Amino acid sequence: MSVWLPSAPCTPGACVEPTGSAAAVPRAVLRIAGVAVLVLTGAVLCPLGGRIPAGLVGRWCRAIVRAAGVQVRVTGTAAPTGGLLLVANHISWLDIPLLAAVRPARMLAKTEIRQWPVAGALAARAGVLFIERDRLRALPGTVARIARALRGGAAVVAFPEGSTWCGRAQGRFHRAVFQAALDAGVPVQPVHLHYRVADGPASTAPAFVGEDTLFASMWRVATSRGLVAEVEVRPVIPAGTHPDRRSLAHAAEPAAHEPDWTHAALVAGTTRLEPARTPQTAEAA
């Protein structure tokens, strides 16, 4: 195990609020079954790749989140076409379909996922770029693969914190993935993800942290009531506006972490980030 391996102090026992009751079990079973059907449908259609319209992929991704019983609200700046690095804070397994709903993209994921039953094979077929987080020597090769995908016009989704956090705490952005954007000469678009109870406070129920299992996290979500996933798409940081990966990560981090991102950007000195001029249509399921 490398000392570099990103980790978070969040654990299910310390950070995640309990949800549901015995009465919620039938609803939870139906929700998880609905998610499974949608995921398997996507797996069947996966070989079609780029022949599936981006709008249809986005609707499918939102449908997965809705099937789990979570409302979806997307606001902010529409993602541009062409090579693009999408970076976001990382809380839940729900983050993946939510970001794919912003723009269909290749995901950057830890290599352990490749070994997961069923999910690993599906991820590989979907074009996931795997990173060996415990082998620092493998990092340059991973950065080169990401840069090739970006040069080819793909969007790539990365979670630079390197691990999931509960949503009340957050980690610093690691810089390596930003080198790929610099090498490919493509823009970076930060996204802020937030989960809460409808018309209420923030919720840690969707968190997938520490020794949590995927099923345990899915069950918490499925037994919850009134969960809302808020996806705030920040303005693009254009290619060439930052000279190195450190300053680029420093510019993207507050935009992905802070709800009041304009103030955070000004404090960080990243005044090139401007408020969105054309908001995306907000959607509530």
Describe this structure in words.
The protein is of the alpha/beta class and 285 residues long. It has one domain (12-268). It contains ten helices and seven strands. The chain has helices at 12-15, 25-45, 54-67, 95-102, 119-125, 139-151, 176-184, 214-223, 245-257, 261-268; strands spanning 71-76, 84-88, 106-110, 129-131, 155-158, 188-197, 227-233. The chain has a seven-stranded mixed sheet with strand order 1-7-6-2-5-3-4, with helices on both faces. Helix 5 (119-125) links the parallel strand 3 (106-110) and strand 4 (129-131). Helix 6 runs parallel beside helix 7, helix 7 (176-184) packs across helix 9 (245-257) and helix 9 packs antiparallel against helix 10. The chain starts with 11 loop residues before the first helix and ends in a 17-residue tail after the last helix. The model is unreliable at 263-285 (pLDDT under 50). This is 1-acyl-sn-glycerol-3-phosphate acyltransferase. Residues 84-196 form the Phospholipid/glycerol acyltransferase domain. It holds the Pfam family Acyltransferase.
